[in-house]
Structure formats: C-alpha cells, structure tokens
Fold these 4 entries.
Entry 1:
Amino acid sequence: MALKLSHVLATLLFLLAMEPFAVQSRALKPGDSPKFLENLEGSYKGQTVKGLQQLKRYLSAFGYLNYNDPTNTNMLSDNFDELLESALKAYQKNYNLKVTGILDSDTIKEMMIKRCGNPDIINHNTSKTKSSKFHTVAHYSFFQEMPRWPSDKTNLVYTFRSGVEVVSLEELRPIIQRAFQRWADVSKFTFQEATEGAQADIVIGFYSMEHGDSRPFDGPGNVLAHAFAPTNGMFHYDADENWSTTNPSTNQVDLESVAVHEIGHLLGLGHSSDRNAIMFAEIPAGTVKRDLSQDDINGIRALYS
C-alpha cells in the first residue's frame, strides 16, 4: 500500500512540475500528418478548401498562428482568411522560401520534413559579427525572455524515465553521453548521469501521444521530439517514430542527431534559421547531423556570455 501511495505522489509531483511550462499553441493531432497538405496545394486567401483547418493547426503548433485569438471566428474553419495568409508568409520567410502567402509546392515540401516539436522562434538574431576579413550573420535564437540555467549551475545531472520502452538503456546511454559531450566541448557545462535515487536536472524518455505535458505527440508523423527551456529539464522523444541507434536507413530517424538538437533547447537555445545548424528545426529521415555548427556555438556562448 505504501509503495502504491508513493508512486501516486511521485506522478502528481511530476505533473505539477510540468504545468507552468505549458505552451499556448495547439498541438498537432494524429490525423494531421503533413500528407494532408498534398490536397491543399495552390490554396490562397479567399478560398474555402477542406483541410485548411489542419493547416491552421500546423501553423499554430509551430508558433505562426495565434490559435487562442478570441476575436477570430475563422480559426476552426476551412476558410483561407487574412490571418492564415499572414501566418503562411511568416513561415515562408522563416524558411527562406518565396514569400507568396500561397500554399505552393515548395512550402508543402518544407512542411513535410520531419522536425522538432518546439515552436519556431520567429524573431531570430540577425546581428552581424565583424572581423578583419568578413561579416557573419547570426541565425540562432533564444526562448522568450531568454531563460537560462543559473550562473552557478554548470554541472547538469540527467536521468532516464520513459512511458514507453523503445530503446534499451544500454543502447541509449552512450548516445546521450555523446550528444551531451558535443555541448560540453563548446560551453561551460558538464553533464553526468544521476546515481540511483539522486535528483536530476534533466529527464529524458520516450512517450506516445498525450503524455501529460500539454504537448501531445502526433504518432508516426511530423514531430520527432521536444524539450523545454531552462530550468524545466524535460526532453521527450516520440515513441511512435522509426528510430535508429546507429546509422539510419532512409525511413529511420537518428536518435543521436535529435538528441544534440533537443539538448540545445534544454540549455536555452531556440531554433536557428541556418539549415546547417543543429538548431535548425527540421531533420529529414535518413539524415545524420550530429556536429554543432558555428552558429550553434555562437548562440550558446552569446546566451551564457
């Protein structure tokens, strides 16, 4: 009986800890796999096309459309209104596509790529860093209000806790160790796995669909994982994706590549508009992308300078 009560108490504490970090955007639903976009190609403002409601959910989930705007009566309809056009233009601009406000083939192709579930940070850092020979443009971004780990918190302790068993701990442990080391090599942070029973700053695990953090996964589809800004410390993989622990085939997703990206979020980085950066939101299936770019390094150093 005591064991059951302790388990219930631990679950309640876990859910309460997550509540302050709930995001305002609406998550995608299982039926919102980006394949629905194929039937919407060529849509533009003024049209009513079945499926546009799913496009609105997609753009809302990733931070381009305010799904909670009480003044807008068309958010749950299939009408292509002015707000949808504006959101689509913002998405196209953020991904360096031709800004048309029309759901063209290039935009659909972009949206079909697997990606991180964190909303995009649209207001990227575009400052220029000068040197004697050239100018470099920073594409990194931060979460709103720039949350960071306290200055005296340089050793972060992590542990594993999954709702669904996908990969054995023996396989996962070295993958996560390598991913953390990439950030340790360029920052002030060190990382170590928690000893049994010890408190951890970061919790990593696999979860399916709705899993208690207000950001349900979409099943086998678009969203691969998500992680919360400091100092929440939650990093969740979507258990329903086809994961690879070594070299992914064309229909698999590399666990380590995604881990390096999500750790960037855990440290306080938002998404980068640089396609070569680890913090770029998308990663196609079959891709291995584990090394930090200069934009990633500049971003983490700027955040903790």
Note: Helices lie at 2-18, 52-61, 82-94, 105-111, 169-184, 255-267, 294-303.
Entry 2:
Amino acid sequence: MIDDTFYMKQALKEAHKAFEDGEVPIGAVVVLNNQVIGRGHNQVERLNDCTAHAEMIALTAAFNTLGSKYLMEATLYVTVEPCLMCAGALYWSKIGRIVYAAADDKNSYRRATGERSPFHPKTKLEAGPCEEESLQLMKTFFEQRR
C-alpha cells in the first residue's frame, strides 16, 4: 500500500544522497496522483548556491514535469521542516499539502514567522512519518563535521 511512509522513504533516499555528497542531508519529493513528479536533495555546496535546497530542486523538477507553475493537487514530502525561503516558494506554488518528517526549531520558517503559517491558505501542513530516521541522519551528519 502506498502511503505517506512510502513517499517519505523516497524523500529519505534523497536525503541520503545529500549526506553522501557532504551536503546537509535533506531530501524532498513531490507527488501527484500517486506518482513522484519531482525529486531533490540539498546541493548548496555542489552548486555553490544558497538557494539549492531540496524543496526548491524538487519543486523545479515538478514544475518542469507538469509544465505548470502551480501544484494545487500535489503533496511535498520533505525530511525536515521547510525554511522561510522554501516556505515562500511553496506559498507561490500553491501546493496542496506539505508533509515533513522532523521539526527544525533552529532553521524552519517558524523562527521568522512564529506560529503564523507562511503557506498558501489552502495548503495543509502535517508532521509525518520517519521523524527518528530523519533526525538521526541530521545528527550523524553534524557530529561528523565537528
């Protein structure tokens, strides 16, 4: 059965790619009608681009797949709660649903907005599965860097 856990595991595969590349291990997939239409993982270091976050790359791939700038019926699965920059892009995409594995009190959109949602009013935001695996991957990454 395909469910949120299945798709979050796809996002985790992307996060592992980032980890292997020495990038902060965050991964994302965009799903529409039970099909992954966009994938991404952090590539900030590789591309020397501070905007090359997993969500941004997955969104761009989804837009290109659909030939559209809106994702009203799609769901983004991301291993860590989006930052303010990614929240802005998600707002403009009008994405229908966002599911994240792990909260990020330090770098998420909430740091700038408090509990006020920066997402489109129709976007549903949910904490989802695979929180522990996502947190452990982040912890291991930063322990190796220190």
Note: The longest strand covers residues 35-41.
Entry 3:
Amino acid sequence: MADKPSRALVLYGDGLARFLNPSHTHLHSLASLASCGFLALPHYPPSENEGARIIREFAELLDACEAYNENAEEFAGGVKSEDKSVTASLSERFTGMKAALITQNSHLKCFGNKIGLTTLQLNDLVGVSHSLEVSQLLASELLKLLGFEEGKTLETSQFDIIIVHIGAGEEQNGLLDTEQMNDLVGTLLCSAQPGTEISSRLHLSVLMSYGAVSGNENSELSLSVAKDENNSELSPFYPRQSYTMKGGKPRDNVRHQNPILIAQWQNAVTRKDMVDTYSFADFKENVGNLVIPADRFLHEVAFKLWKAPKYGA
C-alpha cells in the first residue's frame, strides 16, 4: 500500500481481447510487470442487443447494476434519457471520489451521467487536428486530469479516477482499437518509469473483454476447473471457487467463459505475476490472483485511492 492515495487510470478495451496478438508488445510488457487475472461476468440476458450489453457490462465493472436495471428498457430500446438515477452516485458511494468517463458511445455516456460520472469525449482532450501522435497527446491530457504534469505530482487533481472506454470497431479520432490501445499503454509506461513521481502514484488498470460471445467459442476460454461440477450427484463435494460466492452464498448467475482480462500496475505497490504475455492462456497458467467477480473491480481500485475500505477485509 502506498503512503499517499493513488490516482487511477482505467483503460477498458470493450471487445478487444479477441484481437490481441504478439505484435502488441506494450500490452505484453505491462502484463509482465503487473498483477494480472480475470473478472467474471454474468450470463447474457435473453435477446440482449449489443447496445444493452455494452451498458450492462460497464455497469458490472462499477457495481452499478441497480442503476442499469432501473433503465434496462431504455437501453434495450435505444431511447436516451438524461434523467438522473435514484441510485447513489459513485461520489456518494466512495467517499467523494471524483470520477470521469471518456467514451464515444452516446448511450454509455448517458449511463455515466446517471451514476454521477463526468463524461467526456476524446475530441474534448485531443481536438480534431494536432502535431503529436494521438497516443502521446491523449496520455499527456489524461495524466494532467489526474494531477500529473511534467513528471511531477500536483497536490490536487481534477479527478481521482478516469475510465477510458474503447469499443471494438469504433473510430475514435485516430485512437482505434487494439493497436492504439497498445500505443497508449506504451506511452503511459514510458511516462511512469520506476523512480518517477508518477510511477508511485499512478494506478493503471488495463481491461480487455471479449464483447458479444457466441455459444460455440466458449470452451477454450473457460475458468471452470471441475470437469464434473455439473453432475448432480457429485457437485456438492466440489469446493466453490470464491468468485462464485457472495456474502457466504452462491451467486446464481456466473459466466465461467470469456471473462474480462485485467492487468494492474503501480510501481512498488502491485504484485508482479509470472506472466510474459497479455493472453488468456498465460493468465490462467501463471497468475496468482486468478478470478474475482466483475462487480468487485471498482471496490479494489477505490481502496488504492483511499476511497473505500480494503476489499475482502
């Protein structure tokens, strides 16, 4: 644990995990330095469209499913509303945490407003034309919003946490999909090299999901370890994995296939796993953390920001 509260940057590649390959060297470098693992999601509701899936899985990451459920019909039907949710905002839930969401998805932006996020678009940060590479300019602007300027940490910052949502196939002013996610991670790692002030205060999380998943591509990407756990006679004798439990009771909706891949890094704060590549197979074989439910993700990050009690304590 750091001696001062961290400031968090979350890069969420929605649907980008399937496009990872050996050329994404910066993502692999991050994984080799980081604490890695998986975030387990619930099963898809029947007849869910792609827009609703994007909102629902994002809501899981922020433990804001109640807010999503209040407006599920709205998101399923593509009708936007600017009405505030009756659900407590992130600031109310996490000790005044100042949070921002950067996305090009209009429905996700609407949902962010409902749960108290300050919502921005990439154009708000990098403009339409500029001389620098997009990844360099965006990294610089993100760090400024978190109170990091010219390698120094300012006493105050505009935000405690920024979440950048990048969806598969979305044109984002030049920041497009996995290639640019890789470039952005490389720029951030360069800015937060060990020994700099940034490295000890920036908590970086990179999440990569599989997006919409068809039934025939689940088997190779499964977290389940008990081959006979569905056998009605033998299932009581298999111990429950912790991510399938909540409050001492089994969760009734856990999807074991196609989880979100996550790598988290903060110099001298996060654990280093024995991982070499940012991939499902390497994570499953070599990480120590393995799996947590997706709705616990923000609680763990908020702890690093001194905005929540220790998760699991």
Note: Residues 171-175 have pLDDT under 50 and may be disordered.
Entry 4:
Amino acid sequence: MSIDKEEKIVVVGAGLMGTGIAHGFASSGYPTVLVDTNPESLARARDNIGKILSDGVGLGKVTAESAQASLARLATSGDLSEAARGADWLVETVSEKLEVKKAVVAQAEPLLAPGAIIATNTSALSVTEIAASLAAPERVIGMHFFNPVHKMKLVELVRGLATSDEALVRTRALCDAMGKTSIVVNESPGLTTSRMSALLGNEAMYMLQEGTASAEDIDTALRLGFNHPMGPLELGDLTGWDTRLSVLRYLHQTLGEKFRPCPLIIKMVAAGRLGRKTGHGVYRYDEGKRVPGSGLKASAL
C-alpha cells in the first residue's frame, strides 16, 4: 500500500519532536502544516528545519533543490481549527499530559477529512484513553518517533483497543514512505522503548545520587560496555528531565515501585535543570554543546 503524496498532514506542537516529525513529512514529499499557539516556537522550528536541510546539503545527503522543495511544502499556523480543516492526517506531539492530548484531538476530529488518521506521538500514555472521547476511536493510533527524528529509523506503532486494521496498514505505509522502520506494539504503559529507557535512566540517576560513579563514567560504561550510542544521563539531558519525570510518574502509577522516580530527577526538575533545552541538566551546555567535565558528581549533591 502507498500513501498519496497529495495527502495533507498536520503536526500539532512545535517542540523538539514536532519539529523533527514535520521535517520528516515535508522532506518525504507531503504537504505539511506545523501548528503551535506560540509564534516564537513556530519560527524557531522553521529555522531548525532549515538548518537540518542545509546541513544535509552540506553533507551531500540531499540536493539544494530538494531542500528548497521540502521547505516549500512546510507551512506553519497558530490556528489548529483552520489547519486541521480537510487534512488527511493529524499527528499530535503536545506535552505528555492526557487531558491536553485529548483536547487537541477532540478539537481537530470534526474538521479532518473523512477517514483521516489521528496519530499520537505519546511515549507512555494510553492510546485507548486518548481515543475514547472521539466519535471514531478506530482511526486513532500511536505513532511514537524518536529523537532526533531525521537520524532515528524506528517508529513504534501502538494499537489501542479500538485501532482498526486499516489505520495500522495505512500508518505503516506512511512510515515506509518516510524511510522509517516500524514495529507494532499492543498498547502497554511505556510501550517497549520508553519502558526500558525510563528504567535504565532512572537507575543511572540512582547510581549518580548514591555516588557509585560520576556522570561521565556512568555514561561511558553504557556507551563502551554495551555499545549504546549515548549514555542514559546524556539521553536524559537530550530528552528533557521534565519529560522523563512525567513518564516515570505514569509508569510508577501503572506498573509499580520499580519505576518510582529517583529523588535527584525531581530535584533537578524543580530547579529548572531540564537538560539541553535549558542549558543545564546532568551536564552543562554552551550553545548546544556539552561542556567537558561539567557532569554532576556525588560530592556536589
């Protein structure tokens, strides 16, 4: 099955993930609208997408003409109701709060084209709950991308209780058209990757809190000992510790004590040390680059 390149895709949320997903659709040939109520977020997202494309040109991965065509296919909007009108796909990437996600899809549903697919990029919340308040829950599916979207090949497709076979087949075809590899997950808290990553990152923070090793050494152990491309503390800084804490709290509530958030994560979030996006998490960052030797040590806690 192939997806018509004339089908309009709306991405809601111009944060890190929404930016990457919008770039992925536009660069794969689909007319794409990125929606956010914050004009600064939209401007920043468009600049970041332009940089991804220009870097691709510089590396010889895409032509200048292809990059320009991708940008031309990308529009931005501050009005979800206007952007969603007649769209064939809606992918929401707003904050990991169930009520916020439900409000977004409920607002968009009556405006979309008949048979449109509604996808949620949630990493832990229930697709079934998000879909339950809609008139057509069978067209809702989880479409969990990974950061950075333009480099990461995997997409987890999550079947809620009502998700139809047609929605799954069409969404898998869309992943194929983007050059992504998709896996199918029957809905479960944390899916596959978020559940494993949250547990690993949480344990790494407990080790740091207890003084087992420095942040740099914990990350080095995972990179060199298990061939991970990035250590769990580096990954937490990239993802954002506020997002990681939200996921851990949900998993703790649904799956039990082994997912109880490390107190150090709670302390860091309260202090605004969220990671790369604030310039300070487990490590410090200067213009997006990690400052060598800046990792937290037990003596500083």
Note: The radius of gyration is 19 Å.
